[in-house]
Amino acid sequence: MTLKPTTQPAQRRIRNFQEISLGFSKKQMIDESIRYMDCVEKSCDHGCPLGVDIPGFIRLVREGDNVGALAKIREANDLPAICGRICAAPCEGSFCAKTVDKNSISVRALERYASDHGRPRFTSKKIITPVGKKVAIIGSGPAGLSAAARLAQVGLKVTVFEIMPHLGGILRYGVPEFRLPKNVLDAEIEEIRLLGVDFKTNFSVGQSMKLEQFLGEGYAAVLLTVGKNSVSLLDLPGADLGGVYYAKEILLAANTRFEERFKKNPTPSIGSKVAVIGSGQAALDCSRICLRLGRDVTLIFPETLEDFPVYPDDRDDSREEGLKIEALSKPLSILADSSGRFAAGVQCVRMDFADANGSGKWEIKPVPASEYLVEAQTVIWAGGFKINIAPLAMGPHLKLNESGSIWVDPETAQTSLPHLYGAGDAVANFACVAEAMASGKKAAMSLRKALR
Amino acid sequence: MMFKITNKQILAKDVKRLDVKAPLIASRVEPGQFVMVITTEGGDWIPMPIAEADPMRGQITFIVQESSPATIQLGHLTIGEEIFSIIGPLGQAAAIAKAGVVVCLATGVGTASILPICKALKKAGNKVVGIIGAKSKGSLTLEPQMRIACSRLLIATEDGSYERRGLASEMLKDILAAEVVRLVYAAGSVDMMQTVCHLTRDRAIKTLVQLRPAMSCGMGFCGSCRVRVEGKVVLACVNGPLFDGHSVNFEHYKMRVATSQDDEILTSAHSESDATRSITKFFPGLLGK
Ligand SMILES: Cc1cc2nc3c(=O)[nH]c(=O)nc-3n(C[C@H](O)[C@H](O)[C@H](O)COP(=O)(O)OP(=O)(O)OC[C@H]3O[C@@H](n4cnc5c(N)ncnc54)[C@H](O)[C@@H]3O)c2cc1C
Ligand SMILES: Cc1cc2nc3c(=O)[nH]c(=O)nc-3n(C[C@H](O)[C@H](O)[C@H](O)COP(=O)(O)OP(=O)(O)OC[C@H]3O[C@@H](n4cnc5c(N)ncnc54)[C@H](O)[C@@H]3O)c2cc1C
Ligand code: SF4
Ligand code: SF4
Ligand code: FES
Predict the structure, then answer these.
(1) Distance CA B80, CA B6 (A)
(2) Which of A200, A242, A289, B17 is placed for a possible disulfide with B9 were both Cys, Cβ 3.0 to 4.6 Å?
(3) Which residues on chain B are in Cβ contact (under 8 Å) with A163?
(4) Rounded to whole angstroms, how far apart are CA atoms A321 and A325?
(5) Helix (H, G, I), strand (E, B), or coil: what is residue B20?
């Protein structure tokens, strides 16, 4: 398995929201960097969407120069301590020869180690010659933050507008504290602030200000990084019963309410038995939040366990925490209690590979007569993140993709409206922080050229 | 960015008026819109309409009915204290146009939502008949402001302690008989709004109702405010909160107002006078458990 960090023991960590992984020892990291140096193919060199110089920074870790290693990572990655903790790490991806025997190099672990131990003693405000042009970035998630850093570094005057009271997007309001502590996020944002980036919170673009007003107020360009700001509605029978919540309602509550109050009586209130429907990081995070509320939690998804798209450690850690996983299982409907108003359970059907029409094409199909009930007073639908551009009031001429996300020119990241650019989850489905950041960086590079 | 309380008044039992410094919101908000209020960091998020906005002084006004821990905390703030965060303006503004005679009904905290709409309708040249339903004279709020905002104001108290005894919806019947009513707005309890829609549907009078489902974010992120209108499920915070009353599925809406058992107890206590009937009708299961 990829290198395992020391973690809070399962019994203790399911009673608090503190960070699970306590990081890696110096010895573990030096051994891992040596193991990497002996690796011949080096195919993981170009596995990082941000273009982090993986052999470069690992060599510096090996030489014990963490400050140098972090500086090397920062050349390509503006949120190293965050990626080092939660990046889906395509760099450790399936193409690695070592994953066959399950011990590919833990590039993410090395990145976290360098980020945690390589902070220069004192960070001074960078001296950058201003270029005088103003750029507005809408949304302070990883895509927006990364673009802001890249634009500020060349002297552009960047202002990031954020609707929420704090910055970070899903990094703050989606990913739970036990996977990404807020103080780690705040420290990385402070680094970007030092580049001269200005942040405005509680500012809802589309209501507080419209696109043409930005251009009217002297912004040379606007970059839309609003992420998936809406939900596609669950159309299972019983989907609107009381006690049926969507992931972001639970994630928002867990990430904004005081931990003690949230554990005593969470708003929205959560029953003793919880069923979470959906596959991916959001489904796992909602499940682990409910486990920490002492609830009995079952996670239901139609794929196989191996295809469950999350970082392997997260899946294994959550099973250690007592999560019941119903893989190859598809929800059919949500049943009501005797009052007919509140959820009582999820009717599911087992799924399995079947070569239905004998064509040799094995697909996942429902197993006949295999329906069963998962009892639950609370059902959390952890899918259906989508973008809704209506609240942004960008007018009717903004071209969209089939899926409703914002169309952008693949080369220049420009939308169909002049001076308006787009990046991150708002333009495509990046289930990975590094890919969302890379998308923001690409838009920034295109903007730098356009505004020279 | 904090939002300072500049003035405070106690309007009725558990009902406070708060004036808050919020220049950007004051200059942008339109009638029918609301904001999300987070009184202190770590506390609950409360959707709250803006009863009055003064762009000159950069000030907005809330009418807070203290009925949940969050609204009690907000209502107890004093002049000079600051609210941690106010997000908005949110939601779609009311479409204000000249229509002729317009009736605007409100019960409970709905008065705070209907006041700015009445003002805008009157300014647009409509004859605005306001009807407020309250349990008693003591729980009546914003009467003076509503008198100024409406061409004519009728008040119904359930215990008859002030002006007419009865329900706001009953007074609507008299107005519909006496005037050629073009448009009706209703904000407040589910029963009142449902009764109003029943009355106006037969007469094909366009009716806008303000839905107040449970709202956890107010920005379209979380899906908690889903309501069924014209057979389609939509988000009340982004597509509303005002909807065409005749297309609203009220049975579905009742499920969405209190999405958990404890909200249920609180909500029913605030619906219009026939609250006792609705308690037994709504959740025999709860009582039976
Ligand atoms: C629960 C969850 C867990 C995840 N975990 C992981 C993980 O472990 N590893 C991984 O690699 N990826 C993970 N992802 C995916 C990754 O987080 C996202 O792909 C990434 O956050 C997208 O970044 P973004 O900047 O495009 O959008 P976001 O992070 O969504 O940021 C968009 C920002 O725009 C703001 N905004 C929206 N509308 C407006 C407006 N009108 N005005 C002003 N501001 C506005 C929002 O408030 C938000 O702050 C996770 C996603 C979710 C939902
Ligand atoms: C568009 C809109 C306008 C509103 N206008 C006002 C207002 O002017 N003044 C005011 O004090 N309150 C207003 N509210 C409701 C406010 O969010 C508080 O829930 C409410 O004030 C509680 O007092 P109540 O007597 O109205 O309780 P009810 O509205 O009868 O509800 C009782 C309980 O149900 C829950 N609940 C009901 N509505 C909501 C909601 N929308 N979001 C979350 N939980 C809810 C709460 O726990 C609340 O305590 C509004 C809500 C919306 C969505
Ligand atoms: S760790 Fe895997 S991808 Fe990287 S060099 Fe070694 S075998 Fe190749
Ligand atoms: S940012 Fe992600 S993909 Fe890039 S090196 Fe770090 S963990 Fe790997
Ligand atoms: S309140 Fe969250 S989507 Fe409407």
Answers:
(1) 6
(2) B17
(3) 87, 219
(4) 12
(5) strand
Q: Is B273 in contact with B158 (CB distance < 8 Å)? A: yes
Range among A269-273, B137-141, B272-276 rated most confident: A269-273
Pick the residue of A203, A213, A341, A381 with the most B CBs within 10 A to test the interface with B by mutation. A341
Residue A114 CB less than 6 A away from ligand 4: no
Bridge pairing between strands A273-277 and B34-38: unpaired
pLDDT the model gives residue A396: 84
The span from the CA of A24 to the CA of A313, in Å, is 14
Cα radius of gyration (chain B): 18
Amino acid type, B251: E
For residue A2, the model assigns a pLDDT of: 59
Give the three-class secondary structure for A253.
Answer: helix
Tokens of B194: 């449902």
Between the CA of B65 and the centroid of ligand 5 the distance, in Å, is: 21
- With a CB cutoff of 8 Å and minimum separation 6, the contacts of B198 are none
Residue whose C-alpha is closest to residue B168's, from B194, B203, B148: B194
Per the CB < 8 Å rule, is A165 touching B226?
no
- Checking if the pLDDT of A356 tops 80, the result is no
User: Nearest residue of A to residue B44 by CA position?
Assistant: A257
Ligand 3 probe mutation, A32, A38, A91, A98, most atoms within 8 A of CB: A98
| Closest listed residue to residue A92, CA positions, set A304, A284, A312, A314 | A312
- HEC readout, A209-240: ECHHHHHHCCEEEEEECCCCCEECCCCCCCCC
Q: What's the A47 CA to ligand 3 centre distance in angstroms?
A: 10
pLDDT at B74: 97
Euclidean distance between CA atoms A382 and A384, whole angstroms: 7
Joined together, the tokens standing for residue B35 give 């904001």
Alpha carbon of B208: minimum distance to chain A alpha carbons (Å):
21
Tell me whether residues A242 and B216 touch, CB distance under 8 A.
no
Q: What is the mean pLDDT of residues A172-176?
A: 97
For the cut 50, the answer to whether the pLDDT of residue A310 exceeds it is yes
- CB-based burial of residue A418 (10 Å sphere; 0-12 exposed, 13-18 middle, 19+ buried)? exposed
Contacts of A384 (CB under 8 A, 6+ apart): A231, A232, A233, A234, A246, B223
pTM, to two decimals: 0.90
A197-252 tens-digit pLDDT: 999 999 999 998 988 899 889 999 999 999 999 998 898 999 999 999 999 999 99
3-state SS assignment for residue B160: coil
Ligand 2 and B189: CB distance under 6 A: no
Contact A268 B228 (CB under 8 A): no
Report pLDDT for A40.
66
Compute the distance between CA of residue A282 and CA of residue A254 in angstroms, rounded to an integer. Answer: 13
Query: For tokens 């920074």, what's the residue?
Result: A57
Closest CA to B74 of B140, B9, B18: B18
- Quickly state the pLDDT bin for A446 (edges 50, 70, 90): very high
A403: CB partners within 8 A, 6+ apart:
A386, A429
Element (H, E) at B276: helix B275-282
Residue from the list A165, A230, A249 with its beta carbon closest to the beta carbon of B38: A165
